[in-house]
Amino acid sequence: MGPSGAAPRARALQVWTLLLLTAQNTALVLVTKMSYRDGGAAPYVASTVIACSEMAKLLASGGLVLALDGEREFWSAVREIPSSAFRLALPSVLYVVQNNLLFEGIRLLSPTVYMVCSQSKILTSALFAYVLLKTTVTRTQAASLCALVVGMILVQAQDDGSASGGRGDSGTSLRGLVVVFTASMTSGFAGAYLEKMYKQVGVVGVPARSIWVRNMQLACFSVPIAMFTAMNKDGARLATQGFFGGYDGIVILIIALQAIGGLIVAAVMRYASNVLKCFAVSLSICNCAVATTYVLGDGTDGMSAHQMLGIVLVIGATFAYANK
């Protein structure tokens, strides 16, 4: 395929990966809401869900490598893992830490405050993209980032002022905010780091590998890290409840969606960018706002004017940023 045909194909891959990520994030948020819906506290241990999703991601990535790249490439990638430990261990640790922090943030904060604060990862992603990838931000992109933050606040704001309420006292709320902002920092750095790694093809010391190989290698580190975290953090509860205690069809679906999300994110890092990934997540939150209002019945009077304005701002900011 010549240069004239390569550009439209690359653009199509970028659009499709972002659309898939938006759909996956929307489904994951709604299904996770369902798992908390009946009693408030999850019957399962969140850290085990993270460990299982990393294991599923490893199996799926390995299967894709065998199917698409062949057995020879698979074993070559496996032999490369020890020499890649330094490059791969850091983002693996950061993503496991991030996932555990986000579950803790959901526990400590009201859903509205959590969802608003978690969007700080868009700004941290842009910051680390500038630092690690030397990405320049145009005036249009800077305005898009500001518009996106304002739009997300409007989408999640509530007329009765309950958005500021937490689940406990001010100390608990402050802890929750620190947890979410820390997760945003780890997400921004790990995302930019992985984007740089996925886009390094054939440079000195970094063999050219497919995104599925890189994802498989990454999961080889994240699985033991996630298992260690589960045993260390929730060992007492696991001793009485068991590793799979509280699992049902909803939990299995959460694990599947998280694993699929990891594969889609890898494709986004390769064909789009970490910042555009965050915009896709923001679009999914707008989808969730609509779904919780009109599908799950959490809103009695429909969406307010400022929520509609917020959705328009987010969608407009997404297209403005993508088109620079």
Give an account of the 3D structure.
By secondary structure, the protein is mostly helical. It has a domain of 208 residues. The protein has twelve helices and no strands. α1 packs antiparallel against α10, α6 runs parallel beside α8 and α7 runs antiparallel to α12. The two termini are 27 Å apart. About 5% of the residues have low confidence.
Strand content: under 5%
- Average pLDDT, all residues: 77
What value does the Rg take, in angstroms?
20 Å
pLDDT below 50 for ≥5 consecutive residues: which ranges?
159-168, 202-206
Which structural class is indicated by helix and strand composition? mainly alpha
Tell me the overall shape: globular
Helix content: over 70%
Our count of helices gives 12
The sequence of SSEs as H and E is HHHHHHHHHHHH
Strand count: 0
Straight-line N-to-C gap? 27 Å
Largest sheet: none
